[in-house]
Amino acid sequence: MPEYKAPLRDIQFVFQEVFDCEAHYRKLGFEDVDADTINAIHEEAAKFVEDVVAPLNRIGDEQGCQWNDGEVTTPDGFKEAYQQYVEAGWPTLAQNEKFGGQGLPHSLQQPISEMISAANHSWGMYPGLSHGAMATLEEHGTDEQKARFLPALVEGRWTGTMCLTEPHCGTDLGLLRTKAEANADGSYRLNGSKIFISAGDHDLAENIVHIVLARLPDSPAGTKGISLFIVPKVNVNEDSSLGERNGVHCASIEHKMGIKGSATCVLNFDDARGYLIGEVNRGLHCMFTFMNAARLGVALEGVAASDAAFQGSLAYARERLQMRALSGAKNPDGAADPIIVHPDVRRMLLTQKAFAEGGRAMSADLSMLIDTTHKGTDADERARADAKLALLTPIAKAFLTETGMESTSHGVQVYGGHGFISEWGMEQLMRDTKISCLYEGTTGIQALDLLGRKVLGSQGELLKGFMQEMGSFLGECSADEQLAAHAAVIGQYLEELQSLTATIGKRAMSNPEEIGAASVDYLMFAGYVVLAYYWLRMMATAQQKLADGSGDANFYTAKLQTGAFYFDRVLPRAKSHSACVQNGGDSMMAMAAEHFAF
Predict the structure, then answer these.
(1) Short-list 426, 437, 428, CA closest to 403
(2) Which of 437, 318, 431, 439 is nearest to 57 (CA)?
(3) Beta carbons within 10 angstroms of residue 598's beta carbon
(4) 269: helix, coil or strand?
(5) Vertex 271, ends 267 and 277: CA angle to 5°?
(6) Residues 440, 461, 513, 514: which is the catalytic one?
(7) Angle at which helices 283-319 and 106-119 pack, to 10 degrees?
(8) Rounded-to-integer distance, Cα 504 and Cα 585, Å
């Protein structure tokens, strides 16, 4: 198994040098959060992840979770690691001080989440879902609900879940059947079943707080008739002490392709006591708080997968001896050269590196936008942050998980036959990563959200705002001899993006299917261009650091070289997606459904 090492130097580069998080924190009122504080927190987190969480990764895959008589047991060591996580105060880091949190910025937590996911995706699912549950409660819950449920969630003594999917409906939540009926005391009783509930049952925490979508008897059909409820596994008294077991039971756990150490549960609600969050029939609106947080968390899983795949591939490529370099022996004292000298291996390594580091920059920017929406005092700045998040969330979720999946495939390929063997870890990483392309909305769903709701639905205003930001930065780079060519290339792609948007919008007026036909290619085109923008930002910073003579010249040179590879060998892929959009959806929709089979 590859040994995971937290990429602390690159995290420092992105957050502190590219985005100047210290100035960002001071502006938001976090004057005490300086570089020493940031580095100390991340270094301690890295020790915990490397020494405690990472060694459990293979154990989780081999043992999986066990279901016995309605109760789930996690793999050996998972519970003890979670207890250490809670005792060290990691769950409280970026949570509200009013409920026992440390009140630090959201973006300070982000690298820790990446480390955990890269080291052990399965284990990271248990604390990961709690963030969305807490955000939903804090934004939409009553004062009494917050006081009853948030302190234990913040501390990590309880965990949270999101309960949407049912056996007959996934994305189309308007079809859900779980029912909620009012009790005389103002609570509700819920009946129904939910499936694919990550961390829906486990032995890590003393209680699990489920955030559940359900429908009241007199509510309208479709998504307009959905309400949202808090349903704890164990009932919670008014003083937050635990009462009797609630009517929530794990009927089974799924036997999955990957993340086997994470319990994916079928949950039955049998007259389970719940509490309404927000207004009746406004549940989907409230749940979007949870879903948006979860989508950005899943995007980070894609970054983590790319980084884990790159780390493993690089270590192997430096050691594995096979053949001689085409240009002559590079290891003349050995029987062969290490495979890192071969162009195709370098193609795969650099692709992984470009996706991991570029995705980290994109995710860092988004996490700091979340800081602004939470703590910003300027209404216009908060509005701009919200708009940018709305546009980039589906791109980040879909593009970074698709590229994360590609990176793991390259990892298997770099190892060759050993990549297909369990003991080397690459095949597990590939299996574990695929789910990130699926949950919280598949790539196709994110693409429809981007193109249909965010771009066309806003009459292009969301896209226009971000393009103005990119255009301003490209203008700055155009005066620099070394960066001007890359800036010009991005400018050309932005013009093409505008043209594609107009073409799809025009076609959709006569044939709405054109939106669905174009959406994934449109999102991937946008993803490659947006990542190029973040790479240019990193290249500009690295170039300035080299000019100043500050820091490690090798690090900054490698950053420029990786960026050049991205522009030369990865960004051109966008052209194929553009061609697919321009060709339209006629050939996609022409065949009758009954003619698909031979």
Answers:
(1) 437
(2) 431
(3) 3
(4) strand
(5) 80
(6) 440
(7) 50
(8) 10
Structure tokens at 584: 């339209």
In three-state secondary structure terms, 141 is: coil
pLDDT digits (tens, 9 = 90+) for 269-322: 999 999 999 999 998 888 877 778 789 999 999 999 999 999 999 999 999 999
Stated as kind and residue range, the H or E segment containing 567 is: none
The reported pLDDT for the residue numbered 285 is 85
Catalytic, 440? Answer: yes
CA separation for the pair 143, 101 (Å, rounded): 17
Measure the CA angle with vertex 173, ends 169 and 176; round to 5°.
65
Distance of alpha carbon 299 from alpha carbon 438, whole angstroms: 11
Query: Whole-prediction pTM value?
Result: 0.97
Which tokens go with 90? 């990691």
Length of the chain: 598
How far apart CA 105 and CA 579 sit, in angstroms, is 42
Type of residue at 59: I
The predicted pLDDT at position 126 comes to 97
Q: What is the pLDDT of residue 118?
A: 98
Q: Which of 235, 256, 258, 255 is nearest to 245 (CA)?
A: 235
Listed as ranges, residues in the chain with pLDDT below 50 are: none
Sign of CA dihedral 328, 331, 333, 334: negative
What is the reported pLDDT for 584? 97
What DSSP designation does 196 have?
E
183 CA to centre of own chain: 38
Look up residue 25 and give its two tokens: 């924190």
Q: What is the pLDDT of residue 223?
A: 86
